[in-house]
Design brief:
Layout (H helix, E strand, L loop, with lengths): L2 H17 L11 H17 L3 E2 L6 E2 L3 H18 L3 E4 L3 E5 L3 E6 L13 E3 L7 E8 L2 E8 L4 E9 L6 E4 L6 E5 L2 E7 L8 E6 L3 E7 L3 H8 L2 E3 L1
Antiparallel strand pairs: 1-2, 3-4, 4-5, 5-10, 6-15, 7-8, 8-9, 9-14, 11-12, 12-13, 13-14
C-alpha cells in the first residue's frame, strides 16, 4: 500500500471518528458553575491586570479570550499525543481497540445500495439445515444448525455502506488474510484457544459476506467457496 493511500485511509478513519461529536448536545452549565467562573475571571481582571514582556514596554492583558486560547492549546497538545492502532488489509480497514477491532469496507464505490442478489451456501455439510433467517433491504442472515451435534453456522450478507462499525473479537487472536473465489478477505481462527470455531469476512465486489461457525478454518473456507447467488 502506497503512502498516499495509507494517508487517505487514516484521514477517512479519523474523520469518521470525529463526526459523531458534531451532533453532540450542547452542555448546559449550572448557575453555581457560571457564578464561580465569573468570580475567577474578575480575579484575573482585577489582580492580574498586566504581565510584562522582557526588553519591551508592551503589556499583555489576561482576558477570558486568552484563557480560552490557552485551554485549547493544552487540549490540542493532549490530542496530538494520543495514538491509535489501525488495521489495514486488501479489502478492509479497522480501528483496533483493547479487546475488539472495528472493521470498515475500503471500496464502496459503485456498489449496490440495497441487496439485489441474495447469496446462499450451495453445499452444506451433512446434517446441517436452515434453522433461522432474517432479511432487510440491506442485510441477509441465515443460521444453519446441526441438531445432532449441536453445531451452528451463520451466513451474513451486507450492503457495503451498511457494514460500517462491525466489531470482531481480537482480544487473543489476530486477523489472517485469505482468498475466497478470487476475492480478498480476512479470517479469525478461534480453534487454537480450545473452541473449534472460526470466522471469515470477505468482499465479493458487490457485498460484504461473512461466514462463521463451529468448524475449523480450513473447512469453513471450503464451505465459503460454495456461496452462490440465489
Amino acid at each position: 500500500m502506497s503512502e498516499s493511500i495509507l494517508r487517505a485511509v487514516l484521514e477517512e478513519s479519523a474523520q469518521h471518528e470525529w463526526d459523531k461529536y458534531d451532533s453532540a448536545p450542547e452542555h448546559t452549565f449550572s448557575r453555581k458553575h457560571c457564578r464561580s467562573m465569573k468570580r475567577i475571571f474578575r480575579q484575573y481582571d482585577n489582580k492580574h491586570h498586566f504581565y510584562g514582556i522582557s526588553n519591551s514596554s508592551k503589556r499583555i492583558r489576561i482576558t477570558r479570550k486568552t484563557v480560552l486560547i490557552l485551554v485549547i492549546i493544552v487540549f490540542l497538545s493532549a490530542v496530538a499525543g494520543c495514538t491509535a492502532a489501525y488495521f489495514i488489509s486488501k479489502s478492509f480497514r479497522g480501528k483496533v481497540h483493547s479487546d475488539n477491532t472495528e472493521l470498515f469496507a475500503i471500496n464502496t464505490y459503485n456498489c449496490p445500495s440495497f441487496i439485489e442478489d441474495k447469496y446462499y451456501l450451495s453445499d452444506l455439510p451433512q446434517d446441517f439445515e436452515v434453522f433461522d433467517t432474517d432479511s432487510t433491504p440491506f442485510y441477509e442472515y441465515t443460521n444453519y444448525k446441526n441438531m445432532l451435534m449441536g453445531q451452528n453456522i451463520a451466513f451474513r450478507q451486507w450492503v457495503k455502506t451498511e457494514y460500517d462499525s462491525s466489531h470482531y473479537n481480537t482480544e487473543s487472536q489476530n486477523f489472517e488474510e485469505i482468498e475466497i473465489n478470487g476475492y480478498y478477505g480476512i479470517c479469525l481462527d478461534f480453534s487454537p484457544k480450545g473452541n473449534i470455531s472460526s470466522c471469515l469476512i470477505w468482499d465479493n465486489g458487490d457485498y460484504i459476506l461473512e461466514l462463521s461457525g463451529d468448524l475449523p478454518k480450513n473447512e469453513l473456507i471450503v464451505l465459503a467457496k460454495t456461496a452462490k447467488k440465489n
